[in-house]
């Protein structure tokens, strides 16, 4: 009869072999994924930064009314001017924009020509969900006066709105702040800050200034060492004019996990330390009236990685680790807010939202992502403060 001790030893050896085999498999996949990443990096051709101003104002002014971003329920009716303009901005969906129309009852279905109808449907769905969120927040803002079929006003000009004090939003970050991936022919400045300011302006009906302080290719340590002086200068300028910075949006992490674990300075723990140090430094300058906003990065939707296994799931996991550090910081530090990924954002992986490099959004992609960030800021920060009398 076999000794129990011998049987346990055999079981341990079998388990040990399985663990070693698993470790070898994981190590092999990691090497393959790293090789794929290095190859993509060697083939990468940098895109230019956005042209135009690095600061501006979205003002609640009397402009030409623009309809909300959804199409009529009647299939015979043409798309609204706003959606038509948005769709026209995406080359991949231009044909569908001319032919397709959405079923407004659900906001997610399009009927039109074959080929691009599915991508146009995704655009309509994302825009309709944004429209629904804005409509709910407009009601929460408590504005009694509403012009019939007013929709959204284009926020331009320099006059204060009916809602009161100006909101000042500062953006600090990497190439996503400098506008890499936008149409090089455009000269309006970075699209992400403009989109966030625009949605805040529309919902609160106040002027919203935006300032973009960015450095392409910067990781979190570089943001702290190179860009903090510009943040200090901007905060001082607002204070001299009798105002303060309400929101600082920090876009970071892309250039950190891109070089993950290639050195001791590129680990999750080092990112955690550098991020918390940078956030503390900003808070020391802006004071308690300001909220630091840390958005998750939509790397999991970047089409450059689509279908590349095991690189895509590896990068998705790495990006989630870095974003988790942002969320943990927001949970433990007062005055810090984390912006999660949008729900049901599968269609955001379509190339129509991305630049030619497949890693940076294009104008349309920046606008949709910016409106998502703006809605989160309104829901989690600005509207609670307004309702609380802050």
TrEMBL record:
Superkingdom of the source species: Eukaryota
InterPro entries: SGNH_hydro, SGNH_hydro_sf
Sequence ranges assigned to domain SGNH hydrolase-type esterase in this UniProt record: 171-368
Protein name: SGNH hydrolase-type esterase domain-containing protein
A Pfam cross-reference name: Lipase_GDSL_2
């Amino acid at each position: 009869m076999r000794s129990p001790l011998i049987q346990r030893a055999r079981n341990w050896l079998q388990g040990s072999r399985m663990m070693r085999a698993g470790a070898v498999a994981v190590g092999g996949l990691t090497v393959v994924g790293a090789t794929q990443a290095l190859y993509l990096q060697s083939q990468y051709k940098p895109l230019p930064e956005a042209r135009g101003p690095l600061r501006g104002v979205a003002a609640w002014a009397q402009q030409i009314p623009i309809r909300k971003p959804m199409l009529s329920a009647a299939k015979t009716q043409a798309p609204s001017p706003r959606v038509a303009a948005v769709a026209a901005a995406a080359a991949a969906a231009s044909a569908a924009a001319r032919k397709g129309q959405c079923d407004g009852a659900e906001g997610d279905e399009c009927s039109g020509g074959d080929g691009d109808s599915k991508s146009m449907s995704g655009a309509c769905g994302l825009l309709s969900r944004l429209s629904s969120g804005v409509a709910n927040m407009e009601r929460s803002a408590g504005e009694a006066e509403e012009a019939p079929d007013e929709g959204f006003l284009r926020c331009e000009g320099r006059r204060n709105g009916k809602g009161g004090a100006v909101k000042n939003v500062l953006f600090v970050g990497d190439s996503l702040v400098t506008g890499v991936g936008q149409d090089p022919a455009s000269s309006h400045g970075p699209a992400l800050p403009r989109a966030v300011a625009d949605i805040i302006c529309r919902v609160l009906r106040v002027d919203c200034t935006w300032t973009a302080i960015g450095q392409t290719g910067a990781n979190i340590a570089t943001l702290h060492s190179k860009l903090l002086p510009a943040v200090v200068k901007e905060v001082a300028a607002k204070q001299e004019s009798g105002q303060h910075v309400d929101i600082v949006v920090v876009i970071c992490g892309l250039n950190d996990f891109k070089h993950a674990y290639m050195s001791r300075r590129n680990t999750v723990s080092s990112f955690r330390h550098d991020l918390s140090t940078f956030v503390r430094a900003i808070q020391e300058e802006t004071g308690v009236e300001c909220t630091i906003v840390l958005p998750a990065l939509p790397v999991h939707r970047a089409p450059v990685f689509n279908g590349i296994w095991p690189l895509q799931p590896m990068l998705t996991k790495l990006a989630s680790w870095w974003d988790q550090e942002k969320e943990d910081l927001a949970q433990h530090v007062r005055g810090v807010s984390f912006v999660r990924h949008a729900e049901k954002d599968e269609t955001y992986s379509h190339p129509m939202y991305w630049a030619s490099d497949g890693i940076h959004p294009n104008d349309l992609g920046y606008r949709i992502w910016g409106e998502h960030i703006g809605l989160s800021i309104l829901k989690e920060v600005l509207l609670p403060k307004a309702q609380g009398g802050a």
